[in-house]
Amino acid sequence: MNGNSRIREANPFGARLASSAHFRALFADGMRLVEETAAYLDGPGRAEAKALDRGAALNYATESMRLTTRLMQLASWLLLHRAVNEGELTLDDAAEEKSRTKLASLTAVEAPIADGMPAALIALIERSGALQNDVQHLDRVLYEAGRVPAPDNAVADHLDRLRQAFGA
């Protein structure tokens, strides 16, 4: 039995939360933010970046890359859990797959150096930080609360010892 098995049984609240109106709203907000960010970076953001001095342009490039990476990880997590809600994956399957999203490796969003940075980029970074906080909170509710040790089963333990002793 792996560490994530029995998540649904051990954490029914988390399983219900993942399929709730709260999750659907979070999913919609997250996907909308991804679309808005892509539209900004490909359109007005590109024009604003060209108008920046060299130092601010470097900062813009760094921050836009961090923003894009963060949103890709968050969108991956959201899409994975939408698949759970639609019955395409179990929550246990999602627990195994979510390790690829690197959600845990996302660092807290720091305020970008605002000196010379476009206000629209700063607003997107701040919104992505709020989304990250919400997703990481939901992730903790779903998985960390679900990691409870299996109850002791004296009969199963005894049978395991007998199997080991007799090589069966």
| Fraction of residues in β-strands | under 5%
Main beta-sheet annotation = none
> What is the residue-averaged pLDDT?
80
The global form is elongated
Count of individual helical segments: 8
* Overall helicity: over 70%
What is the CA-based Rg, rounded?
A: 22 Å
Report how far the terminal alpha carbons are from each other.
Answer: 19 Å
Number of distinct beta strands: 0
What structural category characterises the helix and strand content? Answer: mainly alpha
* Assembly form of the protein: single chain
Query: What are the low-pLDDT stretches, counting only 5+ consecutive residues below 50?
Result: 1-11
SSE string? HHHHHHHH
List the helices and strands and how they pair.
Layout: H1 7-10, H2 12-18, H3 21-42, H4 44-50, H5 54-85, H6 91-97, H7 119-144, H8 154-166
What structural keywords apply?
168 residues; mainly alpha; 70% helix; elongated; disordered N terminus
What can you see in these coordinates?
The structure is a single chain. By secondary structure, the chain is mainly alpha-helical. Helix content is about 70%, strand content about 0%. The protein has eight helices and no strands. The chain has helices spanning about 5-10, 10-20, 20-40, 45-50, 55-85, 90-95, 120-145, 155-165. The model is unreliable at about 1-10 (pLDDT under 50).
Write a brief structural summary:
The protein has 168 residues and is an all-alpha fold. The protein has helices at 7-10, 12-18, 21-42, 44-50, 54-85, 91-97, 119-144, 154-166.
